[in-house]
Specification:
Number of domains: 1
Helix content: 55-70%
Largest sheet: none
Mean pLDDT: 96
Distance between the termini: 13 Å
Order of helices and strands: HHHHHH
Radius of gyration: 12 Å
Strand content: under 5%
Structural class: mainly alpha
Number of helices: 6
Number of strands: 0
């Protein structure tokens, strides 16, 4: 899946089949379900989940908690928009492993 296909899937009623957890979290957040997104990343202790977790707390406005998660993700809090950050995270998570 590429970024454009992922972004277009926000119009669908459910996430695309086979979407990995951290991408599912971003999808649910984009659909307005911050709580579901947060539940997904809380169950994953990886660096990618920490980045999504940081983004979610930044979106929530809890910057001190967001900064904790950015440190866990080995990243700095970006100055750009939340949408730009979400898309950057998704683009990186969609890269082949």
């Amino acid at each position: 899946m590429d970024l454009d296909t992922f972004l277009k899937s926000f119009a669908d009623p459910s996430p695309p089949a086979g979407l990995r957890g951290n991408l599912q979290a971003l999808w649910h957040d984009a659909k307005g379900d911050w709580n579901r997104a947060h539940e997904i990343v809380q169950s994953d202790e990886g660096v990618e989940a920490a980045w999504v977790h940081a983004y979610l707390h930044r979106k929530e406005g809890d910057l001190s908690n967001a900064d904790y998660w950015y440190r866990r993700a080995k990243r700095k809090r970006p100055a750009g928009t939340l949408e730009k950050e979400r898309d950057a995270i998704a683009a990186e998570l969609l890269l082949p492993k």
